[in-house]
Amino acid sequence: MPRKWLASNVLEASVQRMVKVYEEGHRVVVSFSGGKDSGTILEVCILAARRTGNLPVDVLMRDEEIMLPGTFEYAERTAALGASPAQTVLTMCKKAMEQAA
To answer: Which helix (H) or strand (E) holds 35?
Structure first.
């Protein structure tokens, strides 16, 4: 089957899909591990939420107990972009790590 080239790129198409989800009134919750896959999905959701006035994005981040400090730093930077509920979860995770140390 021949390729069909579209006027938009993959990023813009994915943001547009999430814009539609937000416009339909759905609640979006992103499971964020701090890795590149969930980071990409979270960024797409933040862009769509910003366009539709739905910031902050709801984020769930689980404490893995073995996360590297860089993972927490990346998650904090991402939270500052528009995923503020992650900040609360991160703060709890960091406090737990500091108490365990």
So the answer is: none
Q: What is the largest CA-CA distance in the chain?
A: 58
* C-beta atoms surrounding 41 within 10 Å: 16
pLDDT at 35: 85
Cα distances (Å, whole numbers) of residue 1 to 4, 20:
9, 29
**Global pTM?**
0.71
47 found inside a domain: yes
Residue 5 lies in a domain: no
Which domain covers residue 77, as residue numbers?
A: 10-100
What angle do the packed helices 10-23 and 36-52 form, to 10 degrees? 60
List the beta bridge partners of residue 31. 60
Both tokens of 91, joined, read: 């703060």
- Residues (pLDDT < 50) of the chain are 85-88, 92
Number of domains in the chain: 1
Give yes or no for a contact between 62 and 38, defined as CB atoms under 8 angstroms apart: no
